[in-house]
Amino acid sequence: MTMIRHIRPALVLFALLSILTGLAYPLGLTAVANLVFSHQAQGSIIIRDGHPVGSALIGQNFTSDRYFHPRPSATSGVDPADPSKSVPTPYNAAVSVGSNLGPTSRSLVARVSAGAVAIGADNPDAIREGWKIPADLVTTSASGLDPDISPEAAFFQVRRVALARHLPEMRVHDLVVQMIRQPMMGWLGEPHVNVLALNLALDAVQ
Amino acid sequence: MSVTGWTTILVFFLTIVVLARPVGGVLTRVLAGERTLPSRILGPLERAFYRLSGVNPDEEQSWSQYALAVLAFKLVCFVAVYLILRLQAHLPLNPAGQAAVAPDLAYNTAISFLTNTNWQSYAGETTMSHLSQMLALTVQNFVSAAAGIAVAAAVIRGFTRREVGTIGNFWADLTRLTLYVLLPACLVLALFFVWQGVPQSLSGVVDATTLEGAHQTIALGPVASQEAIKMLGTNGGGFFNTNSAHPFENPDALTNFVQMVCIFALGAGLTNMFGRMVGNERQGWAIFAAMSVLFMVGAGILYWSESHANPAFAALGVDPIQGNMEGKEVRFGIVGSALFAAVTTDASCGAVNAMHESFLPLGGMVPLVNMMLGEIIFGGVGSGLYGFILFAIIAVFMAGLMVGRTPEYLGKKIEARELKMTMLAVLCLPLVMLGFTALAVVVSPGTSALSAAGPHGFSEALYAYTSAAANNGSAFSGLTANPFWNVTLGIGMMIGRFFVIVPVLAIAGAMAVKKNVPTTSGTFPTDGGLFIGLVTGVILIVGGLTFLPALALGPIVEHLSMLRGIFS
């Protein structure tokens, strides 16, 4: 049948287009990108004292009172005690994942409830002053690697961080204000604070 | 909801309006084989491709020849992708040492990428080697997009030609679209993405020590090259598991905006190309208008829904002002996530920047409905336009029935054979979506893969088969696909692609041989408001009647449960 006529063009064109779009294009782009934007092309890695401390774009976990905390993360990793199991490993940048819990999921409500209690205990002053808990601090992000928190979530933690670092509260507050990234052109995107950048700035203060 | 939020939606829409004409112009010239800027540079490459493959670009094909060429090409694609994935452990560019992809997953992924679905039953960063990402997946992103546009062009040619039996040459369309449209655009886009922070690296991972002294392994790779074609070709297959939500795929609000524009750019341009090719740009704008109405309604409902907090959280002391932030990224916020979800399912992109599974029930229903309507709201590149033409045929048929005249579209009589083909294509989608869902929720290999219980679990299954048959690729991603799902979804994706492409090409072939009917005062005009209203109504009624019962069992009952505080 006439299908035979199509075999040569199908095979040859597939091979040629594969070489062009599957090898020449990505490899050529890699070469150009690493010449022109080498920092970004290699993952926007932040170096402090000669060592990589993370990526400017990827969130990392903070639990100490001395640091601002990021959002909860749904990523998991291999259990060091038993490699066949996985355990919650927040901000595991080797495998991104969201919680994928639906709005009527019992697990979601239980998790948010526990998270709200823990955040209240960590930030008693904010709760006493009548703050409501910013929603981003009890919800997991889509990627599990969200580098940002909302300005409200940062202000919520100012008192705790200031106390732990023996810094004047206004000093920490001003630092947060400085670190807020506003929407582009006034409308595109949301105001946000990069947690790693904020904590690096905090470390630089002392 | 806020003023800045609505501004974002409005500016986005205006950008698409402005882009439609120039993009349509480029597509028209490239597909006609005319000289363009890229063709002056890459022309020798095009001619070399034809010489080596023995193609005469001026040799026209009948609809059946064209369809056979598409199928032959897809067969080669399937075998190649399957083999690369199975053999990746023995091939170069595998810095992370990824093992061979399992047979059912390799089969599912091969079909997924060649049908432009890009459903991902795997996590990219822990499954695919760099070579597989580039040589298997990126290639398919290019050629499946080009093939989609090619088919749309062939269909339009069917309407514009009179009493000839041919609708173009698939090999020439495929080569020109890849070389002169997709590749140049992707080079520019990919460099822009790198500038904004998307990595383009051949190393596997970076090991960092966090400020608190913990160890963090950061996955890297050739992301930007994949990202550009993933959006522009409405493919949607991400480099990373969480797709455009991952900060390395979509670092900021600007890249997010550009990615959304890319999803619609070619689909909107195709409506204008349609107008130019049929000799009346108003015909194209009429389609554009009907698509815009459906887009705005969906995007508006989604934005409204997600601006609300989950009512269960209020009692826990959580501030409702941010809206539903579960499964969303702070830098995009509610509007950047809601608009993206609407756009990605209007078109058959399937890239996600938020977890659709965690949307509130009505917010999650909008992507579902967008896909059920056949993804004809700008749609996948090519597939959106030829899908829309099917609904246009039904609309003029109904108009013809109402006044008792033989229906005509673009000067061609619509007769029984064309309507049969149209109905075949329009009916096979709901059959796959609803039939497979019904099966999956009653057999244990189906239900065991669901992560949610109750109505949300049903929505998870319905979303999966809807996404597969519509060739979208987004998911309620709590689903952990097992061999049952991989096999059935693969079948769904194939039916969704080829049971539309072949009938629609057959319609084009039938149209091409017909005479042109002169326009008279009795002709139903298809470039005005009445047609726009009629076709929008047909799309909603066909979709509404077919899917309402399933929607009632999933998102609607879940919404009512949520309001009553019933959890599962």
Automatic annotation (TrEMBL), chain B:
Q: Which Pfam families match?
A: KdpA (PF03814)
**NCBIfam families per the record?**
kdpA
- The entry's keywords: Cell membrane, Ion transport, Membrane, Potassium, Potassium transport, Transmembrane, Transmembrane helix, Transport
Keyword Cell membrane recorded: yes
**Which species does the entry assign this protein to?**
Gluconacetobacter tumulicola
- Residue stretches spanning the membrane: 6-32, 66-85, 134-156, 177-195, 253-273, 285-304, 332-352, 359-378, 384-403, 424-443, 484-508, 529-553
Annotated membrane topology: Multi-pass membrane protein
Gene symbol? kdpA
Note whether Ribonucleoprotein occurs among the keywords.
Answer: no
Q: Tell me what this protein is called.
A: Potassium-transporting ATPase potassium-binding subunit
Where can this protein be found? Cell membrane
One GO MF term: P-type potassium transmembrane transporter activity
The task this protein performs is described as: Part of the high-affinity ATP-driven potassium transport (or Kdp) system, which catalyzes the hydrolysis of ATP coupled with the electrogenic transport of potassium into the cytoplasm. This subunit binds the extracellular potassium ions and delivers the ions to the membrane domain of KdpB through an intramembrane tunnel.
Question: According to the lineage, what is the superkingdom?
Answer: Bacteria
The UniProt family comment states:
Belongs to the KdpA family.
Q: InterPro entries recorded for this chain?
A: KdpA (IPR004623)
Upper taxonomic classification of the species?
Answer: Bacteria, Pseudomonadati, Pseudomonadota, Alphaproteobacteria, Acetobacterales
Relate the assembly described in the record: The system is composed of three essential subunits: KdpA, KdpB and KdpC.
Per the record, GO CC terms? plasma membrane
